[in-house]
């Protein structure tokens, strides 16, 4: 896998140096920005393949940077922030961020999130995510054309809502989807009852995808935020 060009947006010098050193050690290309205005300029001029973004920037909120970048680019954005409240995570993800890491973070976690993002980016760039007729992830297979789902080559009997949820997650594999985004995609609204229904449908779907306690976990819950399909 080719190493991506990564834009690091961080005003805290020790943290920025840690991230840059990590990227350099693992042969990633990188550019840096210390504030929101510079981040937007670098993103538009250098076209990075991934952005690592702090939310607490000296000249503007990181969420505003996300919204600005999203007006012209779908570049994956991984937020790295000391803000650990669910409301901050949801705001960033709903604004268009692809992932969220809370400070303090481990170098191994950062590298793992970058690798997941790269795999998803590779799927998008190759067109497989939009055009493939069959999605395969571990022992899970979805035949989009036939509208069928298989686990260990045995067909799963899913309700229409469960199937729509599974397809939505599979088309965004590796990305955290918020409750608001999912309910709007499935039901066209994001009322309290919709979120409650989502939890029920997601629970039944997970049982079907993981009938054995020791089986593969395909769906990861981000409590208070949403769900992510893991790349197996």
TrEMBL record:
The modification 4-aspartylphosphate is found at residue 54. GO terms for molecular function: cis-regulatory region sequence-specific DNA binding; identical protein binding; phosphorelay response regulator activity. It holds the Pfam family Trans_reg_C. Residues 5-118 form the Response regulatory domain. InterPro entries: CheY-like_superfamily, OmpR/PhoB-type_DNA-bd, Sig_transdc_resp-reg_receiver, WalR-like, WH-like_DNA-bd_sf. It is found in: Cytoplasm. Keywords: Cytoplasm, DNA-binding, Phosphoprotein, Transcription, Transcription regulation, Two-component regulatory system. Residues 132-231 bind DNA. The keyword Zinc does not apply. GO terms for cellular component: cytosol; protein-DNA complex. One of its GO terms (biological process) is positive regulation of DNA-templated transcription. Residues 132-231 form the OmpR/PhoB-type domain. May play the central regulatory role in sporulation. It may be an element of the effector pathway responsible for the activation of sporulation genes in response to nutritional stress. Spo0A may act in concert with spo0H (a sigma factor) to control the expression of some genes that are critical to the sporulation process. This is Stage 0 sporulation protein A homolog. It comes from Anaerostipes hadrus. The lineage of its organism: Bacteria, Bacillati, Bacillota, Clostridia, Lachnospirales.
């Amino acid at each position: 896998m080719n190493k991506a060009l990564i834009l690091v947006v961080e005003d805290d010098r020790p943290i920025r140096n840690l991230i840059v050193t990590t990227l350099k050690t693992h042969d990633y290309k990188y550019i840096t920005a210390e504030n929101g205005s510079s981040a937007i300029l670098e993103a538009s001029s250098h076209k990075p393949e991934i952005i690592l973004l702090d939310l607490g920037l000296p000249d503007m909120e990181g969420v505003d940077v996300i919204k600005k970048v999203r007006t012209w680019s779908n570049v994956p954005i991984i937020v790295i922030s000391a803000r650990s409240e669910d409301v901050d995570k949801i705001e960033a993800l709903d604004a268009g961020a692809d992932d969220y890491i809370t400070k303090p973070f481990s170098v191994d976690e950062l590298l793992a999130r970058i690798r997941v993002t790269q795999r998803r980016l590779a799927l998008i760039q190759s067109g497989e995510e939009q055009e493939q007729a069959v999605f395969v992830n571990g022992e899970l297979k979805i035949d989009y054309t036939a509208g069928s789902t298989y686990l260990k080559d045995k067909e799963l009997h899913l309700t229409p809502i469960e199937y729509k949820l599974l397809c939505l997650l599979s088309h965004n594999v590796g990305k955290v989807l918020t409750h608001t985004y999912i309910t709007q995609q499935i039901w066209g609204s994001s009322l309290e009852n919709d979120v409650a229904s989502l939890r029920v449908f997601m629970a039944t779907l997970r049982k079907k995808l993981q009938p054995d306690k020791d089986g593969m976990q395909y769906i990861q819950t981000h409590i208070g935020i949403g769900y992510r399909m893991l790349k197996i």
